[in-house]
Input
Amino acid sequence: MTTTETPAPPDGQAGTAPLEVRKTPTRKRLVPYWLLLPGILWLIVFFAAPLVYQASTSIQTGSLEEGFKVTWHFATYWDALGEYWPQFVRSVGYAATATALCLLLGYPLAYLIAFKAGRWRNIVMILVIAPFFTSFLIRTLAWKTILADGGPVVGLLNSLHVLDVTSWLGLTEGQRVLATPLAVVCGLTYNFLPFMVLPLYTSLERIDPRLHEAAGDLYARPSTTFRRVTFPLSMPGVVAGTLLTFIPAAGDYINAELLGSTDQKMIGNVIQSQFLRVLDYPTAAALSFILMAAILAMVTIYIRKSGTEDLV
Amino acid sequence: MAVHGTTQATAVRTPNRGLRWLRRNVVAIAGLCTLGYLILPNIVVMVFSFNKPNGRFNYQWQRFSTDAWRDPCGVADLCGSLGLSLQLALWATVGATVLGTMIAFALARYRFRARSGVNTLIFLPMAMPEVVMAASLATLFLNMGIQFGFWTILIAHIMFCLSFVVTAVKARVMSMDPRLEQAAQDLYASPVQTFLRVTLPIAAPGIASGALLSFALSFDDFIITNFNAGSTVTFPMFVWGSAQRGTPVQINVIGTAMFLVAVVCVVVGQLAGARKRSKRS
Output
């Protein structure tokens, strides 16, 4: 989780040592603190303090009329978890599926840009980033049109009997895609795909193409080259991409709201409605704390397992 | 690089030419399919900006019309919310870029205690689900009795853009050769001169990309704004509301226009960059 302690400049021996040999008066030694002060203060007051504040809110009881008081009422956590665990499970499931799909779809695209696009590279890159510039809510709404009942996509899936399979898997219902889990996962995958492609591209681009040639010279088949050379070297991108996709996807409530029905509510939807509609602040606070803790735990385990701790 | 592998495979099995072509290009085809998946909604948005819908929702094609393009502000509050979002994005960019650049310089140029603590504090907002940040900040404002509106949105936007600016600028400053600054000092440049004439120009691309990222993030943010806006309506919130009340075609017009303006800007920037590079060499 923590960032690297001493980020050495790329050309190691030309580090900052010569700068430090020159005498630094006290006034100068305070310079970094003055530089940090306004920004860090901003983050402490508007990011860290609110989290602490929310922790105290989650153990309060009361109502909007009488006001809320800290009563160390930890039962809110159990009640919230007891009532909303299906939404938690669903959020993790949808986010994990969307992340896997992003990796599956994003890898060939990143590979294409890094190794095969040649002089088209800039144009493909623009095409990857350009969709970003249309408000993502407008683009998500466009999926309503694309996946509409009786539309071409549903028709095609139906004639290929894909919908029979997905319905059997519980991903769709009958002849429709909208308002089913498939639509929500499709929206999530779409929305976070660029966050997978860009880190993958960055790490693939760093791979020396001569390594591929060397693997070929040693009679490795393309698939072996990929499995033994390319993929392991792109691991930092895979880890960064999966994190950048999974974390926001698990907390998202836009796709579930716009493309799903009440049966596809994710934990973000619950937090949003508890906070903005029901005005039950302790429950909203407890839910977002559970979400945060769950994600932090999963991310920590994942980073440990993938063995790239120096990544972030 | 795939040549060796394919020749070997053909020697073994000799599949027909079409199959061979497919095998060699399977990655490119898959990549292009993904690209299509990414761009498809933009095309739909563009096409449906020329629709004349029946009723309040613009989800089904009825017939061609350029009405919405001739009157993009014809819907109540749409252009007002757009103006507000632009204004917010501008100020959030200024705030986040100034504060973030300062932090980035402190982290990249100095060794001090609390470095790792600062690094963690910068990293966490990027690794936190937006709902969590949004709800906790709103809880704070609520309990402080602060009126939700322009200022609370601006505070929130600067908060979540800050980390991205720091990351972008820090990467750039750390990859720069410290000997350049030493050389400037050896040539009797004052610290201020060194900073303005050497350090800042080298860091500029990082600062620019941080600023652009902030602008895009702030302009497009919905989740954090939704919690901290009160009754103020930004453009994403207008779009969100319209998904419930009825989507005017003008939304597609604005979306298409944003897309086209951005693509033109990027292409012009690329061409200018290419020309600069060819001039230099």
The first helix of chain A runs from residue 17 to 21.
